[in-house]
Amino acid sequence: MRLQTGSSCSDILNVGDGNIGDNNDGEAEIEIPDDMLIKNSGDPISSIVNSTYPSLLENMSDISFF
Q: For the region Disordered, what residue ranges are annotated (predicted)?
C-alpha cells in the first residue's frame, strides 16, 4: 500500500478495520495469470528451483550466474 498526500491516519485505520472498501466475508477469489504460476511437475521443490534458476546444473561453476 502506498500512502498519498492527503490521506489521514483515520482513513488508514478505517481501511485496516474494514470500515472502508468493499464488503468481504474473509474469503476472496484472486485470479493469477498463467505466466506467473509454477507448473506442477510432481516434485514441487524441483519446480521452484528450475523456475528460479533455469539451467542451474549447466551453470553451477559460473559464479556470475548467481
A: 1-27
User: How many residues would you count in the chain?
Assistant: 66
What does the pLDDT read at residue 13? 73
- Mean pLDDT estimate for the chain: 76
- CA–CA distance, 40 with 57 (Å, rounded to integer): 20
Q: What's the pTM?
A: 0.41
Cβ pair 10, 1 in contact under 8 A: no
Question: Cα separations (Å) of 26 from 21, 22, 42, 48?
Answer: 13, 11, 31, 29
In 3D space, the residue among 21, 12, 22 whose CA is nearest the CA of residue 4 turns out to be 12
C-alpha cell recorded at residue 6: 492527503
- Helices (DSSP H) in 1-66: which residue ranges? 9-16, 44-52
